[in-house]
Amino acid sequence: MSIHITLTVISLLVTKCISEGTTPDQVHISFTGDMTEMAVVWNTFSEVSQDVTYGKTGSGATSTAKGSSEAWVFGGITRYRHKAIMTGLEYSTEYDYTIASRKFSFKTLSNDPQSYKVCVFGDLGYWHGNSTESIIKHGLAGDFDFIVHLGDIAYDLHTNNGQVGDSYLNVFEPLISKVPYMVIAGNHEDDYQNFTNYQKRFSVPDNGHNDNQFYSFDLGPVHWVGVSTETYGYYYEYGMDPVMTQYDWLKRDLTTANSNRAAHPWIFTFQHRPFYCSNVNSAECQSFENRLVRTGWLDMPGLEPLFLQTSVDFGFWGHEHSYERFYPVADRAYWNDPNAYINPKAPVYLISGSAGCHTPDALFTDKPWPWSAARNNDYGWSIVTVANRTHIRVEQISIDKNEQTVDDFWVIKDEGHMHSGEMRRANPGAKFPLQKCHFKDVACKRSLKEINEEL
Ligand SMILES: [Fe+2]
Protein backbone atom coordinates (compact mmCIF):
# COMPACT_ATOMS: atom_id res chain seq x y z
CA MET A 1 0.00 0.00 0.00
CA SER A 2 2.67 2.42 1.05
CA ILE A 3 4.70 1.49 -2.04
CA HIS A 4 1.66 2.19 -4.22
CA ILE A 5 1.14 5.57 -2.57
CA THR A 6 4.81 6.37 -2.97
CA LEU A 7 4.76 5.46 -6.66
CA THR A 8 1.59 7.48 -7.16
CA VAL A 9 3.21 10.47 -5.54
CA ILE A 10 6.34 10.01 -7.65
CA SER A 11 4.19 9.65 -10.77
CA LEU A 12 2.30 12.82 -9.95
CA LEU A 13 5.54 14.65 -9.34
CA VAL A 14 7.00 13.41 -12.63
CA THR A 15 3.83 14.38 -14.47
CA LYS A 16 3.91 17.77 -12.82
CA CYS A 17 7.58 18.27 -13.79
CA ILE A 18 6.93 17.26 -17.41
CA SER A 19 3.90 19.51 -17.50
CA GLU A 20 5.94 22.39 -16.10
CA GLY A 21 8.76 21.58 -18.49
CA THR A 22 6.53 22.08 -21.48
CA THR A 23 5.05 25.36 -20.28
CA PRO A 24 6.43 28.22 -22.40
CA ASP A 25 8.33 30.77 -20.35
CA GLN A 26 10.64 33.75 -21.03
CA VAL A 27 8.31 34.80 -23.86
CA HIS A 28 9.49 37.89 -25.69
CA ILE A 29 8.98 39.59 -29.05
CA SER A 30 11.36 41.43 -31.36
CA PHE A 31 11.44 43.10 -34.75
CA THR A 32 12.48 41.06 -37.78
CA GLY A 33 13.23 44.07 -39.98
CA ASP A 34 9.88 43.70 -41.74
CA MET A 35 7.38 45.76 -39.78
CA THR A 36 4.50 43.54 -40.90
CA GLU A 37 6.11 40.76 -38.88
CA MET A 38 6.91 40.09 -35.24
CA ALA A 39 9.28 37.40 -33.98
CA VAL A 40 8.51 35.63 -30.74
CA VAL A 41 11.00 33.50 -28.83
CA TRP A 42 10.25 31.34 -25.82
CA ASN A 43 11.74 28.54 -23.75
CA THR A 44 10.67 25.15 -22.48
CA PHE A 45 12.59 22.63 -20.43
CA SER A 46 11.06 19.65 -22.18
CA GLU A 47 10.96 18.73 -25.82
CA VAL A 48 7.68 19.81 -27.29
CA SER A 49 6.38 21.19 -30.56
CA GLN A 50 4.54 24.46 -30.06
CA ASP A 51 3.06 26.97 -32.48
CA VAL A 52 1.75 30.49 -32.00
CA THR A 53 -1.85 31.27 -32.80
CA TYR A 54 -2.68 34.92 -33.26
CA GLY A 55 -5.23 37.37 -34.49
CA LYS A 56 -6.48 40.90 -34.10
CA THR A 57 -7.70 41.58 -30.59
CA GLY A 58 -11.36 40.75 -30.39
CA SER A 59 -11.32 38.65 -33.58
CA GLY A 60 -9.98 35.43 -32.09
CA ALA A 61 -7.04 33.46 -33.42
CA THR A 62 -7.09 33.64 -37.19
CA SER A 63 -3.51 32.68 -38.02
CA THR A 64 -0.85 30.25 -36.91
CA ALA A 65 2.89 30.87 -36.86
CA LYS A 66 4.78 27.61 -37.02
CA GLY A 67 7.25 27.34 -34.18
CA SER A 68 10.75 25.96 -34.65
CA SER A 69 12.36 24.14 -31.77
CA GLU A 70 16.01 23.67 -30.99
CA ALA A 71 17.58 21.96 -27.98
CA TRP A 72 20.65 23.54 -26.45
CA VAL A 73 22.61 22.51 -23.40
CA PHE A 74 24.33 24.80 -20.96
CA GLY A 75 25.60 23.99 -17.49
CA GLY A 76 24.12 20.51 -17.71
CA ILE A 77 20.61 21.87 -18.31
CA THR A 78 18.83 21.16 -21.58
CA ARG A 79 16.66 24.00 -22.75
CA TYR A 80 14.48 24.20 -25.84
CA ARG A 81 14.53 27.45 -27.77
CA HIS A 82 11.35 28.04 -29.69
CA LYS A 83 10.85 30.72 -32.30
CA ALA A 84 7.97 31.71 -34.53
CA ILE A 85 7.35 34.69 -36.76
CA MET A 86 3.92 36.23 -36.88
CA THR A 87 3.44 37.57 -40.41
CA GLY A 88 0.93 39.60 -42.38
CA LEU A 89 0.38 42.04 -39.53
CA GLU A 90 -1.52 45.24 -40.12
CA TYR A 91 -0.16 48.56 -38.89
CA SER A 92 -1.43 50.31 -35.75
CA THR A 93 -3.30 47.18 -34.74
CA GLU A 94 -3.56 45.25 -31.50
CA TYR A 95 -2.94 41.53 -31.67
CA ASP A 96 -3.46 38.70 -29.21
CA TYR A 97 -1.26 35.64 -29.41
CA THR A 98 -1.30 32.33 -27.61
CA ILE A 99 1.41 29.76 -26.97
CA ALA A 100 0.24 26.54 -25.30
CA SER A 101 -2.68 28.29 -23.59
CA ARG A 102 -0.57 31.21 -22.36
CA LYS A 103 -2.00 34.45 -23.74
CA PHE A 104 -0.15 37.64 -24.68
CA SER A 105 -0.74 40.76 -26.72
CA PHE A 106 1.09 43.56 -28.52
CA LYS A 107 0.34 46.48 -30.79
CA THR A 108 2.02 47.15 -34.11
CA LEU A 109 3.41 50.57 -34.97
CA SER A 110 1.96 52.69 -37.73
CA ASN A 111 3.18 52.38 -41.29
CA ASP A 112 6.53 54.20 -41.54
CA PRO A 113 6.02 55.99 -38.20
CA GLN A 114 7.54 59.46 -38.23
CA SER A 115 7.58 59.70 -34.44
CA TYR A 116 8.02 57.13 -31.69
CA LYS A 117 9.77 56.57 -28.38
CA VAL A 118 12.46 54.09 -27.45
CA CYS A 119 13.59 52.90 -24.04
CA VAL A 120 17.39 52.71 -24.12
CA PHE A 121 19.64 51.35 -21.39
CA GLY A 122 22.55 49.04 -20.75
CA ASP A 123 23.93 47.00 -17.93
CA LEU A 124 20.85 45.73 -16.15
CA GLY A 125 20.99 42.73 -13.87
CA TYR A 126 18.55 40.27 -12.41
CA TRP A 127 20.03 41.13 -9.04
CA HIS A 128 20.40 44.86 -8.33
CA GLY A 129 18.07 45.63 -11.23
CA ASN A 130 17.44 49.12 -9.91
CA SER A 131 15.56 50.30 -13.00
CA THR A 132 13.58 47.11 -13.62
CA GLU A 133 10.38 48.15 -11.88
CA SER A 134 10.41 51.61 -13.47
CA ILE A 135 11.06 50.28 -16.99
CA ILE A 136 8.30 47.67 -16.71
CA LYS A 137 5.85 50.19 -15.29
CA HIS A 138 6.47 52.76 -18.02
CA GLY A 139 6.55 50.14 -20.76
CA LEU A 140 3.20 48.68 -19.75
CA ALA A 141 1.81 52.21 -19.59
CA GLY A 142 2.73 52.67 -23.25
CA ASP A 143 5.44 55.26 -22.64
CA PHE A 144 7.75 53.75 -25.28
CA ASP A 145 7.37 51.61 -28.39
CA PHE A 146 10.35 49.30 -28.12
CA ILE A 147 13.44 48.65 -26.04
CA VAL A 148 17.12 48.74 -26.93
CA HIS A 149 19.28 46.97 -24.35
CA LEU A 150 22.90 48.02 -24.85
CA GLY A 151 24.45 44.80 -23.59
CA ASP A 152 25.30 43.28 -20.23
CA ILE A 153 22.02 41.50 -19.74
CA ALA A 154 20.98 39.89 -16.43
CA TYR A 155 24.54 39.62 -14.98
CA ASP A 156 24.80 37.09 -16.37
CA LEU A 157 22.58 35.17 -18.73
CA HIS A 158 24.78 32.15 -18.04
CA THR A 159 25.20 32.51 -14.27
CA ASN A 160 24.15 29.52 -12.17
CA ASN A 161 23.96 27.30 -15.23
CA GLY A 162 21.82 29.85 -17.03
CA GLN A 163 19.17 30.07 -14.34
CA VAL A 164 19.87 33.78 -13.75
CA GLY A 165 19.14 34.35 -17.44
CA ASP A 166 15.91 32.34 -17.10
CA SER A 167 14.84 34.38 -14.06
CA TYR A 168 15.69 37.71 -15.69
CA LEU A 169 13.67 36.95 -18.81
CA ASN A 170 10.75 35.73 -16.71
CA VAL A 171 10.77 38.92 -14.66
CA PHE A 172 10.66 40.97 -17.84
CA GLU A 173 8.21 38.70 -19.66
CA PRO A 174 5.13 40.83 -18.87
CA LEU A 175 6.82 43.73 -20.69
CA ILE A 176 8.90 42.07 -23.40
CA SER A 177 6.09 39.75 -24.48
CA LYS A 178 4.28 42.99 -25.34
CA VAL A 179 7.00 45.47 -26.36
CA PRO A 180 9.80 44.46 -28.78
CA TYR A 181 13.07 43.80 -26.99
CA MET A 182 16.11 44.56 -29.17
CA VAL A 183 19.44 43.54 -27.69
CA ILE A 184 23.13 43.65 -28.40
CA ALA A 185 25.85 41.70 -26.63
CA GLY A 186 28.09 43.14 -23.94
CA ASN A 187 31.20 41.68 -22.44
CA HIS A 188 29.09 39.82 -19.88
CA GLU A 189 27.36 37.90 -22.65
CA ASP A 190 30.49 35.89 -23.30
CA ASP A 191 29.65 32.68 -21.48
CA TYR A 192 32.93 30.94 -22.33
CA GLN A 193 30.98 29.11 -25.04
CA ASN A 194 31.09 31.83 -27.69
CA PHE A 195 28.00 33.72 -26.53
CA THR A 196 25.77 30.64 -26.61
CA ASN A 197 23.27 32.01 -24.09
CA TYR A 198 23.01 35.27 -26.01
CA GLN A 199 22.60 33.49 -29.33
CA LYS A 200 19.98 31.04 -28.14
CA ARG A 201 17.82 33.31 -26.03
CA PHE A 202 17.13 36.11 -28.52
CA SER A 203 16.08 36.80 -32.06
CA VAL A 204 17.25 39.79 -34.10
CA PRO A 205 16.75 40.83 -37.74
CA ASP A 206 18.58 38.51 -40.12
CA ASN A 207 22.08 39.69 -41.01
CA GLY A 208 22.81 36.89 -43.46
CA HIS A 209 25.24 35.26 -41.06
CA ASN A 210 22.87 33.37 -38.74
CA ASP A 211 24.25 35.48 -35.94
CA ASN A 212 22.71 37.77 -33.30
CA GLN A 213 25.86 39.86 -32.90
CA PHE A 214 25.07 42.59 -35.44
CA TYR A 215 22.02 43.67 -37.39
CA SER A 216 20.04 46.64 -38.60
CA PHE A 217 16.48 47.67 -39.23
CA ASP A 218 14.67 50.72 -40.52
CA LEU A 219 11.92 52.37 -38.57
CA GLY A 220 10.48 55.65 -39.74
CA PRO A 221 13.19 58.31 -40.02
CA VAL A 222 15.90 56.14 -38.44
CA HIS A 223 18.17 53.38 -39.65
CA TRP A 224 19.06 51.49 -36.45
CA VAL A 225 22.29 49.47 -36.36
CA GLY A 226 23.31 47.10 -33.57
CA VAL A 227 27.07 46.58 -33.46
CA SER A 228 29.05 44.08 -31.42
CA THR A 229 32.03 45.56 -29.63
CA GLU A 230 32.67 42.10 -28.25
CA THR A 231 34.18 40.85 -31.47
CA TYR A 232 36.95 43.32 -30.56
CA GLY A 233 36.91 42.68 -26.84
CA TYR A 234 37.22 38.95 -27.30
CA TYR A 235 39.30 38.82 -30.45
CA TYR A 236 42.07 37.07 -28.52
CA GLU A 237 39.50 34.38 -27.63
CA TYR A 238 37.59 33.96 -30.86
CA GLY A 239 39.98 35.38 -33.45
CA MET A 240 39.88 38.03 -36.15
CA ASP A 241 37.19 36.42 -38.32
CA PRO A 242 34.23 37.74 -36.24
CA VAL A 243 35.77 41.23 -36.32
CA MET A 244 36.15 41.24 -40.07
CA THR A 245 32.81 39.53 -40.78
CA GLN A 246 31.04 42.26 -38.84
CA TYR A 247 33.19 45.04 -40.27
CA ASP A 248 32.54 44.00 -43.86
CA TRP A 249 28.82 43.74 -43.18
CA LEU A 250 28.79 47.05 -41.29
CA LYS A 251 30.62 48.89 -44.03
CA ARG A 252 28.07 47.73 -46.58
CA ASP A 253 25.15 48.42 -44.26
CA LEU A 254 26.24 51.95 -43.31
CA THR A 255 27.24 52.83 -46.86
CA THR A 256 23.84 51.76 -48.14
CA ALA A 257 22.08 53.59 -45.31
CA ASN A 258 24.11 56.72 -46.00
CA SER A 259 22.89 56.71 -49.59
CA ASN A 260 19.32 56.18 -48.45
CA ARG A 261 18.92 59.34 -46.39
CA ALA A 262 15.86 60.46 -48.30
CA ALA A 263 13.94 57.58 -46.77
CA HIS A 264 15.72 57.41 -43.40
CA PRO A 265 17.60 60.64 -42.63
CA TRP A 266 19.09 59.46 -39.33
CA ILE A 267 21.60 56.65 -38.70
CA PHE A 268 21.66 55.47 -35.08
CA THR A 269 24.13 52.90 -33.86
CA PHE A 270 23.98 51.03 -30.58
CA GLN A 271 26.75 49.02 -29.02
CA HIS A 272 28.15 48.05 -25.65
CA ARG A 273 31.68 49.40 -25.16
CA PRO A 274 32.05 53.14 -25.68
CA PHE A 275 34.57 55.05 -27.80
CA TYR A 276 34.90 57.69 -25.08
CA CYS A 277 34.12 57.96 -21.39
CA SER A 278 35.42 59.74 -18.35
CA ASN A 279 34.95 57.13 -15.68
CA VAL A 280 37.76 56.21 -13.37
CA ASN A 281 37.19 52.49 -13.23
CA SER A 282 40.34 51.08 -14.75
CA ALA A 283 40.56 53.89 -17.30
CA GLU A 284 38.29 51.77 -19.45
CA CYS A 285 38.16 53.88 -22.54
CA GLN A 286 41.91 54.15 -22.76
CA SER A 287 42.56 50.50 -22.05
CA PHE A 288 43.88 48.57 -24.96
CA GLU A 289 40.95 46.23 -25.56
CA ASN A 290 38.43 49.09 -25.54
CA ARG A 291 40.49 51.44 -27.67
CA LEU A 292 40.56 48.71 -30.28
CA VAL A 293 36.86 49.25 -30.82
CA ARG A 294 37.35 52.88 -31.71
CA THR A 295 40.72 52.97 -33.41
CA GLY A 296 41.50 49.41 -34.44
CA TRP A 297 44.98 48.01 -34.28
CA LEU A 298 47.40 46.92 -37.00
CA ASP A 299 45.20 45.16 -39.59
CA MET A 300 42.12 45.40 -37.41
CA PRO A 301 39.88 48.29 -38.52
CA GLY A 302 38.29 50.36 -35.78
CA LEU A 303 34.73 51.58 -35.89
CA GLU A 304 35.09 55.35 -35.50
CA PRO A 305 36.56 56.02 -38.97
CA LEU A 306 33.70 54.08 -40.52
CA PHE A 307 31.14 56.01 -38.48
CA LEU A 308 32.72 59.26 -39.65
CA GLN A 309 32.93 58.20 -43.27
CA THR A 310 29.26 57.27 -43.31
CA SER A 311 28.14 60.24 -41.21
CA VAL A 312 26.56 58.24 -38.38
CA ASP A 313 24.36 60.64 -36.42
CA PHE A 314 24.03 59.00 -33.04
CA GLY A 315 25.76 56.30 -31.02
CA PHE A 316 24.33 54.76 -27.87
CA TRP A 317 26.72 52.94 -25.59
CA GLY A 318 26.67 51.05 -22.30
CA HIS A 319 29.41 49.31 -20.33
CA GLU A 320 30.18 52.25 -18.05
CA HIS A 321 27.69 52.13 -15.21
CA SER A 322 26.73 55.75 -15.53
CA TYR A 323 25.17 58.27 -17.87
CA GLU A 324 27.37 60.52 -19.98
CA ARG A 325 26.46 62.75 -22.91
CA PHE A 326 29.07 63.92 -25.37
CA TYR A 327 29.40 66.88 -27.66
CA PRO A 328 29.81 65.99 -31.31
CA VAL A 329 33.24 64.39 -31.45
CA ALA A 330 35.38 62.97 -34.23
CA ASP A 331 38.70 61.36 -33.40
CA ARG A 332 39.03 63.66 -30.39
CA ALA A 333 38.13 66.79 -32.34
CA TYR A 334 35.03 68.23 -30.77
CA TRP A 335 32.49 71.03 -31.00
CA ASN A 336 31.25 72.27 -27.64
CA ASP A 337 29.65 75.56 -28.60
CA PRO A 338 26.04 76.26 -27.51
CA ASN A 339 24.73 75.24 -30.91
CA ALA A 340 26.74 72.04 -31.11
CA TYR A 341 23.62 69.89 -31.32
CA ILE A 342 22.14 71.86 -34.20
CA ASN A 343 23.40 70.37 -37.45
CA PRO A 344 26.13 68.49 -35.54
CA LYS A 345 29.51 68.43 -37.19
CA ALA A 346 30.27 64.93 -35.92
CA PRO A 347 28.42 61.98 -34.32
CA VAL A 348 26.67 62.56 -31.01
CA TYR A 349 27.37 59.80 -28.49
CA LEU A 350 25.72 58.85 -25.25
CA ILE A 351 26.50 56.35 -22.51
CA SER A 352 23.44 54.93 -20.76
CA GLY A 353 24.83 52.10 -18.68
CA SER A 354 23.33 52.84 -15.30
CA ALA A 355 20.16 50.76 -15.39
CA GLY A 356 21.20 48.47 -12.57
CA CYS A 357 24.49 46.71 -12.47
CA HIS A 358 26.35 44.37 -10.22
CA THR A 359 28.69 47.04 -8.93
CA PRO A 360 28.16 50.27 -6.97
CA ASP A 361 27.84 53.69 -8.52
CA ALA A 362 30.38 54.40 -11.23
CA LEU A 363 32.78 57.20 -10.37
CA PHE A 364 33.88 59.92 -12.73
CA THR A 365 37.21 61.62 -13.08
CA ASP A 366 37.37 64.98 -11.31
CA LYS A 367 37.50 66.72 -14.63
CA PRO A 368 35.61 65.46 -17.69
CA TRP A 369 37.00 65.23 -21.16
CA PRO A 370 36.38 68.50 -23.00
CA TRP A 371 33.94 66.68 -25.26
CA SER A 372 31.92 65.42 -22.28
CA ALA A 373 28.76 67.53 -22.02
CA ALA A 374 26.89 66.01 -19.06
CA ARG A 375 27.52 63.28 -16.52
CA ASN A 376 25.31 61.59 -13.97
CA ASN A 377 25.95 58.43 -12.03
CA ASP A 378 22.47 57.87 -10.59
CA TYR A 379 20.86 54.61 -11.55
CA GLY A 380 18.52 55.22 -14.46
CA TRP A 381 17.53 54.70 -18.05
CA SER A 382 17.02 56.80 -21.16
CA ILE A 383 14.05 57.57 -23.30
CA VAL A 384 14.78 58.54 -26.89
CA THR A 385 12.09 60.36 -28.78
CA VAL A 386 12.27 60.30 -32.55
CA ALA A 387 10.12 63.39 -33.00
CA ASN A 388 10.37 63.65 -36.77
CA ARG A 389 12.89 63.70 -39.63
CA THR A 390 14.78 66.64 -38.11
CA HIS A 391 14.38 66.45 -34.32
CA ILE A 392 15.56 63.89 -31.77
CA ARG A 393 15.17 64.21 -28.00
CA VAL A 394 16.93 62.25 -25.25
CA GLU A 395 15.87 62.26 -21.61
CA GLN A 396 17.67 60.52 -18.78
CA ILE A 397 15.43 59.24 -15.98
CA SER A 398 16.98 58.95 -12.53
CA ILE A 399 15.87 56.11 -10.30
CA ASP A 400 17.77 57.60 -7.38
CA LYS A 401 15.75 60.81 -7.73
CA ASN A 402 12.31 59.26 -8.01
CA GLU A 403 12.23 59.22 -11.82
CA GLN A 404 13.24 62.84 -12.13
CA THR A 405 14.66 63.80 -15.52
CA VAL A 406 18.34 64.57 -14.94
CA ASP A 407 19.31 65.30 -18.53
CA ASP A 408 17.21 66.41 -21.46
CA PHE A 409 18.53 67.53 -24.81
CA TRP A 410 17.59 67.78 -28.46
CA VAL A 411 19.59 67.08 -31.57
CA ILE A 412 18.29 69.00 -34.56
CA LYS A 413 19.43 68.86 -38.14
CA ASP A 414 18.18 70.25 -41.39
CA GLU A 415 16.94 67.95 -44.10
CA GLY A 416 19.99 66.62 -45.91
CA HIS A 417 22.52 67.73 -43.29
CA MET A 418 25.54 65.46 -42.88
CA HIS A 419 28.68 66.21 -40.94
CA SER A 420 31.56 66.52 -43.34
CA GLY A 421 35.17 65.47 -43.30
CA GLU A 422 36.22 69.02 -44.04
CA MET A 423 34.54 70.23 -40.84
CA ARG A 424 36.13 67.47 -38.82
CA ARG A 425 39.57 68.46 -39.97
CA ALA A 426 38.92 72.06 -38.94
CA ASN A 427 39.41 71.18 -35.29
CA PRO A 428 42.73 69.69 -34.24
CA GLY A 429 41.19 68.03 -31.21
CA ALA A 430 42.40 67.64 -27.68
CA LYS A 431 45.29 65.84 -26.12
CA PHE A 432 44.34 62.24 -25.58
CA PRO A 433 46.64 60.04 -23.51
CA LEU A 434 47.40 56.71 -25.06
CA GLN A 435 47.35 53.53 -23.09
CA LYS A 436 50.23 51.61 -24.53
CA CYS A 437 50.45 48.63 -22.22
CA HIS A 438 48.78 45.35 -23.05
CA PHE A 439 45.26 44.85 -21.71
CA LYS A 440 46.22 41.68 -19.90
CA ASP A 441 48.88 43.55 -17.98
CA VAL A 442 47.21 44.46 -14.69
CA ALA A 443 49.90 47.02 -14.03
CA CYS A 444 48.25 48.85 -16.90
CA LYS A 445 45.52 50.07 -14.58
CA ARG A 446 46.05 53.65 -13.57
CA SER A 447 45.04 55.46 -10.45
CA LEU A 448 42.43 58.18 -10.30
CA LYS A 449 45.19 60.66 -9.53
CA GLU A 450 47.10 59.66 -12.65
CA ILE A 451 44.04 59.95 -14.85
CA ASN A 452 43.11 63.35 -13.47
CA GLU A 453 46.65 64.55 -14.02
CA GLU A 454 46.46 63.47 -17.65
CA LEU A 455 43.24 65.37 -18.08
FE1 LIG B 1 30.16 45.77 -19.83
Automatic annotation (TrEMBL):
All residue ranges annotated as the Purple acid phosphatase C-terminal domain in the record: 346-407
Domain Calcineurin-like phosphoesterase span(s) in chain numbering: 117-323
Annotated ranges, domain Purple acid phosphatase N-terminal: 24-107
Gene3D superfamilies: 3.60.21.10, Purple acid phosphatase-like, N-terminal (2.60.40.380)
Reaction catalysis annotation: a phosphate monoester + H2O = an alcohol + phosphate
EC number: 3.1.3.2
Pfam families listed in its UniProt record: Metallophos (PF00149), Metallophos_C (PF14008), Pur_ac_phosph_N (PF16656)
GO MF annotations in UniProt: acid phosphatase activity; metal ion binding
Signal sequence residues: 1-19
Keywords: Glycoprotein, Hydrolase, Signal
Family the entry assigns: Belongs to the metallophosphoesterase superfamily. Purple acid phosphatase family.
Name this protein carries in UniProt: Purple acid phosphatase
Gene responsible for this protein: papl-1
